[in-house]
Amino acid sequence: MAQLTVEERRRIFVNRQRNGRELLTRLSAPVAVSKPHPAPLQLRRMFEIMVVAALLTAGWLVSQSIAFQVPASLAEMLPRL
Q: What's the pTM?
């Protein structure tokens, strides 16, 4: 690779300095942030409540349809041969 001349190195240095300053200027500039609207938050909360209620209802319905009877002894749990 060929060596750079003094002028080329200086030009690269100046360009890097300028780009760094521009980047810092862009990053330090204030950014306008809009406030969140309360309506989407309320809709999300309502959706979460409905999902929890649906899961509880489904669990209750399943537990009512499946009658789990605990065996009196371990021998009753073993399969019959």
A: 0.39
